[in-house]
Amino acid sequence: MGQWLYRNIIEPGKLPLLLALTAFVMTFLVTRTVTRLIRAGRGPFGNVKAGGLHIHHVVPGVVLTVIGGFGAVASGRQGFGAALAAVLFGIGAGLVLDEFALILHLADVYWTEEGRRSVEVVVLTAALVGLLLAGFVPFGVNDLTQDELQDRGTVVATVVSNFVFSLVALSKGKARTALFGAVVPVLALVGAVRLARPGSPWAKRFYRSRPRARARAGLRAYHHDRRWAGRARAFQDWIGGKPDPARLPDRR
């Protein structure tokens, strides 16, 4: 284990990234545990307030992210300073992204359906950083040989082609595939060649006069969502807590 850690993490200079990812995940898990206890009225925890103002944990998260980011720039990639900056950055990022939905909607949607977006963003971030730790490099540069890396034309062509595939997948309404495809290019290629999701920019542009393609895209999306949407929601509820039931409008 020690040899693997040195060879794959310490020697390539990835220790700060590992520390940041560990701090990020642990901060998110601890934060969600505390907020769920507050929601249930258990334990000694409570919302932080100053003069009647509820201080969301995104506020200290932003402060820690700024300190950790500038600390990492100032300290370089080695030594105790770099490790400390990485931990502070990971903690800050965990606090910020746990309330990503609040920032997106500019409203306290933590325990609503919209709040699921925070859990989704945290999971995606952790997965992408994990791929970087595993040795993946964006846009497939890590798949090139040493001889190919010496040829700038090959490098540029590889980056541009993989970027285009990711862009096409994104235009087809497959944001997750496009995001992971930037790190694992084969996913971007798969997302680029498959049918677009209904309502996506690609579908609106190219399926407008193709009813059969429109129908096939709708059927594929229906079966995909029916198979995976429920599982994704159950996983999000297990990690971040189940949202509050939606309130029906008062029609009196």
TrEMBL record:
The residue ranges crossing the membrane are 15-34, 55-74, 80-107, 119-141, 153-170, 177-196
Q: Which UniProt keywords apply?
A: Membrane, Transmembrane, Transmembrane helix
Write down what this protein is called: Integral membrane protein
In its UniProt entry, the species of origin is given as Streptomyces brasiliensis
